[in-house]
């Protein structure tokens, strides 16, 4: 208990004011199930809003750096489209672009801004995870969300203030990336505190739909706001994430102890037999103290999954940042899509991501084999990427169908590794029930992946200027490497399952000679 009487967790976390008000209204404490539901909803909305603000750049990118030669071949009749633009306040910005991005090197400058954002995001992730295991996750998450909202809006304010300095937009995106880095370690740690390993893959697969929901909502909002001026494509998502951050501050319980619930769910998970999960399990004595950075790297399975995620996120974030641009600058059925139409069509990739995340989580739960599931998806993504590049330009129908399939296979392993795998390793049995490694392990895995997320869009900015086929070759090679990095884990999982099956075979099924006394 704190000096003011509010319940606190082991780290002194104060019960949120909103929870106290809810308990007063209810006339009693929240139940464990109700608290779990509240945690899922708030963390879902939280990270969906993070991704909504992150997605706006990809929608506005083709407005900042337009290819005016394509205006005569838009999906809608060009005259009607241009008439609509003439009636909008942002006519000049939409048709002429925005300096300094509308010059010959505009595409490369946009790629450098993506790199700066994701580079700071990746570096900040390691520090945020380390900090998250030592401070109140609710406060860390709130600060990150409000800061993200302010600097997302600041990027759009460049339009209102008539700013054309590349370094202004670069600095704003870098600071936004730093605030964004607080999000993922915090939400995964909170969810990991509330849910044990049983069916974690399915639960987190469904929960991880926040990524795609955020991308879809961010795309739709940004595309809808373009007619009012591209600044509003940043300002509206920025305001939304700040409001959700306020809700997090008022209502998010970071662990069961905050609301006075003692739960041994995780302890029961650590005590289960570890025969069939050899690479994600171990034993040692460590409890209550926050786990160090190097110690977290040494947890079996962390390094290979982190490196695998590097290449998975390279592929996923290349689509996140460049898919709308690719769609608006590639003939589909003999026509070019408008910027807003390309943004709307690109959401199908994220719809596929929702399906892929749930499917990968469910399969990994049924098989009890995270590495095998992730590797299978990454290998299957290779032909999907190839077919999307070759046949996606035939028609909108073909493009949509292949994009949906590619989204399933690309985002499936990405979602699985960043959620269930991170939570498994962050509550690893070698930690002996200590949940104060969750944020650190999550940050290591997703931080390493985020370096790949920075590299992919950067390389795309340069390679796409020469050939989009070169970009897809890079993506296919990355998917191949991602799968190969898990090969040792896959072999170990299969071997463990074969050994477990051999041990459980009834004696009558064994050869007679094996039953004879020596």
TrEMBL record:
Swiss-Prot/TrEMBL keywords: Membrane, Sugar transport, Transmembrane, Transmembrane helix, Transport
MF-aspect GO terms: transmembrane transporter activity
Broad class of the protein's primary localization: membrane
Membrane-spanning ranges: 108-127, 139-161, 167-195, 207-226, 232-252, 302-322, 342-360, 372-391, 397-417, 437-459, 471-491
Superkingdom, taxonomy of origin: Eukaryota
Family: Belongs to the major facilitator superfamily. Organophosphate:Pi antiporter (OPA) (TC 2.A.1.4) family.
Name recorded for this polypeptide: Major facilitator superfamily (MFS) profile domain-containing protein
């Amino acid at each position: 208990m704190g000096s003011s009487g509010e319940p606190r967790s082991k780290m002194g976390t104060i019960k949120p004011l909103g929870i106290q008000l809810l308990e007063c209204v209810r006339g009693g404490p929240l139940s464990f199930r109700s608290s779990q539901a509240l945690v899922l909803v708030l963390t879902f909305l939280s990270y969906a809003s993070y991704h909504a603000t992150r997605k706006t750049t990809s929608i506005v990118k083709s407005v900042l750096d337009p290819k005016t030669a394509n205006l005569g071949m838009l999906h809608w009749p060009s005259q009607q489209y241009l008439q609509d633009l003439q009636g909008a306040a942002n006519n000049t910005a939409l048709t002429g672009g925005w300096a300094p991005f509308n010059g010959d090197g505009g595409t490369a400058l946009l790629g450098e801004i993506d790199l700066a954002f994701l580079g700071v995001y990746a570096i900040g992730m390691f520090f945020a995870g380390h900090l998250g295991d030592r401070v109140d996750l609710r406060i860390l998450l709130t600060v990150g969300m409000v800061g993200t909202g302010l600097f997302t809006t600041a990027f759009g304010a460049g339009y209102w203030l008539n700013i054309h300095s590349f370094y202004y937009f670069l600095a704003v995106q870098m600071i936004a990336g730093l605030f964004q880095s607080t999000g993922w370690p915090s939400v995964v740690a909170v969810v990991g505190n509330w849910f044990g390993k049983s069916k974690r893959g399915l639960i987190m697969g469904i929960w991880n739909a926040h990524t795609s929901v955020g991308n879809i909502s961010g795309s739709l909002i940004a595309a809808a706001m373009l007619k009012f001026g591209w600044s509003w494509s940043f300002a509206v998502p920025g305001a939304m994430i700040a409001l959700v951050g306020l809700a997090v501050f008022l209502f998010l319980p970071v662990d069961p102890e905050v609301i006075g619930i003692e739960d041994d769910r995780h302890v029961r998970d650590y005590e289960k037999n570890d025969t069939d999960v050899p690479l994600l399990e171990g034993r040692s004595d460590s409890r209550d103290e926050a786990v160090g950075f190097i110690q977290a790297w040494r947890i079996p399975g962390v390094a290979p999954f982190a490196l695998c995620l590097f290449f998975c996120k390279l592929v996923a974030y290349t689509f996140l940042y460049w898919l709308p641009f690719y769609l608006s600058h590639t003939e589909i059925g003999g026509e070019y899509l408008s910027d807003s139409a390309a943004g709307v069509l690109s959401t199908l990739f994220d719809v596929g991501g929702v399906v892929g995340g749930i499917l990968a989580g469910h399969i990994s739960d049924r098989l009890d084999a995270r590495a095998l599931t992730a590797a299978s998806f990454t290998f299957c993504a290779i032909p999907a990427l190839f077919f999307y590049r070759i046949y996606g330009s035939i028609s909108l129908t073909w493009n949509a169908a292949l994009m949906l399939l590619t989204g399933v296979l690309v985002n499936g392993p990405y979602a699985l590794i960043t959620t269930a795998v991170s939570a498994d390793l962050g509550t690893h049995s070698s930690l002996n029930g200590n949940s104060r490694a969750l944020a650190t392990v999550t940050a290591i895995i997703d931080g390493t992946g985020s370096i790949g997320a920075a590299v992919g869009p950067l390389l795309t900015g340069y390679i796409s200027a020469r050939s989009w086929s070169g970009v897809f070759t890079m993506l296919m090679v990355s998917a191949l490497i991602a799968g190969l990095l898990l090969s040792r884990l896959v072999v170990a999982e299969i071997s463990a399952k074969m050994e477990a099956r051999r041990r459980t075979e009834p004696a009558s099924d064994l050869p007679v000679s094996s039953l004879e006394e020596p």
